[in-house]
Amino acid sequence: MKKIYFSEISGNSLGYLAIIAGLGLLVALGFGAFLYMEHNGHWVTGMNNEIVWGLPHVFAVFLIVAASGALNVASISSVFSKTAYKPLARLSGLLSLALLAGGLAVLVLDLGRPDRLIVAMTYYNFKSIFAWNIYLYTGFFVIVIIYLWMMMERKMNGFTKAAGTTAFIWRLALTTGTGSIFGFIVARQLYDSAIYAPLFIVMSFSFGLAIFILVLMATYGGTGRPLGDAILFRLKNLLGVFIAAVLLMVTIFYLTDLYGTEHHDAVAFILNGDNIYTKLFWVVQIILGSLAPLALLYNPVTGTSRAWIAIASILVIIGGLAQLYVILIGGQAFPLVLFPGMEVSSSFADGVVASYSPSLPEFLLGLGGVAIALIIVALAMKVLQFAPNSLADADVDPHYKAAS
Amino acid sequence: MNKSTMKNNDALVDKKRRAILGGTTAAIAGMAIAPGIFLTETAQARPVDQPVSSKTRWGILINTNNCNDCNDCVTACQNENGWGAGSSDEKNSRPDQKAQWIRTVKVTNKETGYAKTLPMMCQHCESPPCVDVCPTGASFKREDGIVLVDKHICIGCRYCMMACPYKARSFIHEKLTDQLSYAPRGIGTVESCTMCVHRVDNGENPACVDACSDSMIFGDLNDPDSNISRELAKHGGTQIRADLRLNPGVRYQGLNV
Question: For an interface test with B, which of A45, A49, A328 has the most B Cβ atoms less than 10 Å from its Cβ?
């Protein structure tokens, strides 16, 4: 394998400036939405006392889950010693930091009292999975930054494997923590399941890799640097495996719940209801977000087309957002069971499916988080050496043989 | 004054001193014992200078057989704590965004059609899930079993609302101006029934209990001689979602739907 040369992207093209301007506008709109909600209070949003976590949380959890998954490419290189992935490791680390920053920004800005962030950093209840997550998130930043330093500073290269292994273990803990936010909620029918931790881990593999593939293709397409088929096809095959793994976990989750009679109503609400969640589950999450990309990635014609690989990755992201919408909003919309088997009614929406209509400010705040992540990646690549000059087959694939 | 007169005077002073000291001691002892003898039913509160103790576990027993959907408990709570009709606030919030500390819930058996109405509020669990999940410790349980939110360190993450099996908590969606000094509320924080902690600490019953003395009993679940314990021992009581093993401090009778 040839030596890999990294360099900053020039960042002078009109296209680059347009991307920065566009993302900057989205960040500004997201911040404006936050100020609007903060100034008025959450009555201007779609949230209520039944759906307490709305669209911003869907975006935030998606970004946080994808963040840990985006680090996978680096882990495959450093922990599992696959040299073909080594050139991608820096970008993988950068993307994971950026996605986490975007997700956390949305999470914090949607708090009822975002001005009390310092309270969240100084008062801890260690029985709370949220409190553990505050440590897992801040620890992730520190560990991945050290990991990047080990990779990017020649003198420190010897510590790359140790740092990469620490980061890999930490990211598994982080996604376990994120999944357990829902897994530990005993009160609600559609949560309270240990499978949320492994489910979120495979979701992170899938969403993070889909975003990584798109960022990689955009970077190399935009800068005119060579990106060979060998590395891209490895990544897309891996994405297919991850999509299948998510499908398996989702199947086990619903099958387990279906086996117990007490959960029939709740599962039927998601899988066979006359509501938005059933449509999102089957049409967007399963068909568009899982089966379609699987078919596209493994079909010999579309699976070797860069455009189709990009489309499959976009579908995985759309399916992932739908999946989190179903988990978060659907899980809250199903009424709490106060009296099992009985019908209940009250002035406080007991016994009825909670309604939620996402508002524009919530959507803009969520989109702002995505823009924060992407603008960090774009700006960091301009000032530091994250992207290899070439990812052509001959430069990265140890088994590459020139066509004779 | 000769020596013998002085001696007699000293003896007299000593005698008087002893009498004063003895009387004072008896008075102090009497004051300490008296509440135990004379005031068992009315003065349930601890002295203000003493910390809350886990020797007491406050609870409410609700007899749903007498509950006729009159809403008196809800109105009393609103007026006492300044929410809903008891406040001029929350004008912008939609109905599903407005706070409800206590509500009446109608339970109907689908097969038989038999229905019961009951008041539902924070159940003041012994193992409250809201306290477990709160990242900052703003959700907390007092030693005497009353579950509260410290409005100063609540960051408004709403995780407690996700975790509460009774949907007892509300989030404040807008700025408030019409609060009562003893019932702090504020934008961006979560709130729920406080079991009228300000009244309980003054030896009074919660407002809902006073408004519905026919059906609701307030008292110390740890004291076998309290009215609530005696009634529970005599006629029993049920916990809502007892399967979760949270051991709520609010108990119900007549929930045989």
Answer: A49
Q: Which CATH number characterizes residue B117's domain?
A: 3.30.70.20
Tokens representing residue B226 in the block: 């309290």
One domain for residues B20 and B71: no
Do B107 and A124 count as a contact with CB atoms less than 8 A apart?
no
Mutation pick from A44, A52, A332 vs chain B, by most beta carbons of B within 10 Å, is A52
Report the C-alpha gap between B93 and A112 in whole angstroms: 15
> B226: which DSSP letter?
S
Q: How far is CA A385 from the centre of its chain?
A: 24
Q: What are the structural domains, with CATH classification, of chain A?
A: 7-337+346-396 (1.20.1630.10)
| Residue-level pLDDT at A1 | 57
Residues B88 and B32 in one domain: no
pTM listed for this prediction: 0.91
Whether B171 and B119 map to the same domain: the answer is: yes
Chain B residues inside the 8 Å CB shell of A344: 105-108
pLDDT tens-digit map of B184-220: 999 999 999 999 999 999 999 999 999 999 899 999 9
Complex prediction ipTM:
0.93
Residue indicated by tokens 């992407």: A374
Three-state DSSP state, B118: strand
Provide the number of structural domains found in chain B.
Answer: 2
Task: Find the helix or strand (DSSP H, E) in which A92 lies.
Answer: helix A89-109
Cβ contact, residue pair B240, A338, below 8 Å: yes
B9 shares a domain with B122: no
Q: How many contacts (CB atoms, under 8 Å) link A and B?
A: 178
pLDDT, averaged per 10 consecutive residues of chain A (404 residues), comes to 85 93 98 97 97 98 98 94 91 98 98 94 94 96 97 92 96 97 95 96 98 97 92 96 98 94 94 97 98 97 96 98 98 95 91 95 98 98 94 78 50
| Residues B64, B68: Cα–Cα separation, whole Å | 8
Q: How far apart are CA B47 and CA B201, in angstroms?
A: 9
Q: B172 vs A112: CB contact, 8 Å cut-off?
A: yes
Residue B162 and residue A52: Cβ atoms within 8 Å? yes
Q: For residue B7, what are the domain limits? A: 1-38
Residues B64, B34 share a domain: no
